[in-house]
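Readers of this paper often ask what the protein records in our data store actually look like. Such a record has a labelled line for the sequence and another for the backbone structure tokens. The tokens are whole numbers drawn from a learned vocabulary of local backbone shapes. We quote a single record here, exactly as it is kept in our systems:
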Amino acid sequence: MTSFNLRFAGRLFASSALALLLATPAFAAEPEPAKTAAPDDQKTNADGSLNEVIVTAEKRPQSLQKTPIAISVLSAEDLQNRHVQSLVDLQDGAIPSLRVAPFYSRNSALIMNIRGIGVLADSNQPARDQGVGVYIDGVYLGRAQGLGTALYDIESIEVLKGPQGTLFGRNTEGGAVSIVTKKPTGQFGLTATAGIGNFGSHKAEAHLNLPEWHNFSVKLDGIVTKRDGLVANPLPGQSDFNGFDRHGAHVEILWKPESGVSADYAFDTSYDASTPLYLQAITAGTLARAPALPLQPDRVRTASIGVPQQESIGRTHGHRLTLGLDIAPGLQLKSITAYRELNQSQYDNGGQNSSTYKPNGAFSRYSLAGFAQNQFSQEIQLIGDTPRLKYVLGAMAYREHTEDNAQAFNSMLWNADGTAATVATYNIATVPYDRASRITTRSIGAFGQATWTPGIADDRLHLTAGARYTRDMKRGELFIVNGKTPSVNGVVAPRALDAAWSRVDPLVTLAYDVTQAVHVYGKWSEGYKSGGANSRSLTYAPFNPETLSMFEIGAKSEFLDRRVRLNLAAYTGAYKSIQIDFQANYLQFDANGKLLETTRTTIETTNAPGTGRAKGIEAELTVAPMAGLTLTASYSYNDLTIPATVNPFPQGVNGTVVATPIKIYPVYTPAHAASGAIDYERPMGDYSLVAHLDANYDSGFYANYNDPAPGVNQPKGDPGFIVNGRIGVTDIALNDTGARLSVSAWARNLLNEQHLFYKTLNTATGVSGFFNEARTYGLEATVKF
């Protein structure tokens, strides 16, 4: 233990010294300029300097530039300029280190990875967690389902990179996405927006602030947004592919009976109906294809075969109560209590073009899945701030109950020569469940973090240390497999899960203020993703948590009178006990070698042996070269390696285990990703001209984590280059009451670029994949009172 501490101390000292070297002579000491307040949602102050960005990564409002964590922030203005209506729209790469993608073809469940860490395989399961925590106003959202809903009135989205196990807890090994909504102002104000676009899209939203009454401030939000499918379904009466219909409402009541006392209650409800992406066949496999299933190497507008398809519908609602009490000067007690529910149906019939063909045979697998969840969380924080010591102490309790089920059947029938197909006869109500499970998760934790500024080096040195203790408990059962009660080794009974794990996640940071505008740091932190069980399994055997220990150095700097901002970070981490899924084919025999039962190929999860490695660099640059013009650029390099792992589960007709390590690919992790934007605003008397253009690049990534067959490599997705734009006229005076009108035109994927972001190979059916979305565009008008 002593040798480890000495090794770590030496590493921390060396890396901090290296971070100091990042403060080049160009960053000479400069006086702190007087701050000039910036208008809402603008990147620069009135004097042309860059606006200060405030974040809450350490559970208190503070400057982004003085927070020793790699953080990227999207403001309300950024979201509007990129026409981001839900987290799904962030898959274009607005933040290079963050990858957002649908779970397979379903926008109703999202995969989120930061620095390549988050989810390696199927996260659409009750007893399995993601490795990136998503929070709204401090409330953890426990499931990947429901993340595709429309966003309400957002103040900012903060992306915290690297393990956040100390302050944010379990399932934040890759990082955390913290969404902050706009609070009631206590002054009357109404913002209403309406818009239309191609593919039948339309949008309407309103945000109403009511005048303060008896210390109560109320804010009401409503949104409706809809778009037809991007790929037409030729079967009459059936939904098209990749469309959505979202609406929701939000109310927030803020009570401040006296200074230092507050109660903030919020309720939200949302409806999200979406259809799956269309899986296109790009190259042929070893099996013959039906004539009606042509290869489609370019993005299509109409599917080759019409199939039954209906919307996947998600309904969520939740309550939050945040209490604040200033106990003494510099000491605040905070409580966050929340309860949420979600119900999500998932209907996926998007892969008919990659189906196996047989004359008069059935094809077009229709996958139906139901998901229901409710969660309760309670967090207490004690936040202290003294001249020498800033600290956060807290405790959290979390309880979640989740259930899922799944059905799958072929929905179409070929004719004798494969030139036409008809809908098969089926009744969803009588199709047996393929699997069903339920799980209750309980988690408790206690944490503390403190930053000490000793009275040396002119108060430029800051030492932060923290730790969190967490205990996770999961109890549940897999009670249906292949339409019946599971049977393993002749025992017919639900497969039970009753497991618990405990963890301590530490953090140590050494930061130094080179000047008032240049800050460097070195940080070591740990995080983990909880253990669980695989609901696609037959045995429902538990797997253990995976962990990430990461070391990071960084520099945050501003110069040229705060007109240039440059933030750099480099990291390396040890990735252990990685949760990996494997196909498992269970064939069971009696003592005489007679086959007892045959089940479908199932999926089991194991923890990989050995240690993986995550390393990379990140850079963010913001420049304000002249009044009204802001240039931004960001880049990330991610290098993730995962140890080759033996599939420990029975395979083949004899049920043997082949002890050959299998290559594991990092998924949803492009080695190189970059994003850049130009924002321009020019006042023109009673109105302003505004323009925005952004470009986003990634070098392509793997969507599947192992090879489809021995000696056959998994294909990598295509590189992507997406350009988005917005242009408009704002702040047009309507009357003497102060009402203002803004009109704008927007476009996503302005150049209509196409690439297969998801690519998979089946030796029988060939290469298939999902294309990025076609160009969408529209007009919007906003009135503010």
The two ends are 63 Å apart (CA to CA).
